[in-house]
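Contributing new records

If you add data, match the layout below exactly. Sequence lines come first and carry their own label; structure lines follow with theirs. Keep one chain per record. Anything else will be rejected by the validation script.
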Amino acid sequence: MLIKVKVFPESKKEKIIKKSEDSFSLFVKEKPRQNQANFRVFKLLSNYFQIPQNYIRIVKGAKKSNKIFEIKEVINGKRKQHFMWI
């Protein structure tokens, strides 16, 4: 599943707003330096979808505020999609 995420770094409060079925706004306290905000986004998304962080990957926009993430779907305790990490 692909989702679009607009990240707002250096926010006062952390929160996730679901704008549509595949679109989210994420507010994180971390700064957008040295991937601090991205690491926090991974943690928030994994908590939101109740999956491990390694089931999430950035497809596009690693250094932008508009990002596209791919979420591995879990069916009956098994991963539906498989990735090879290089």
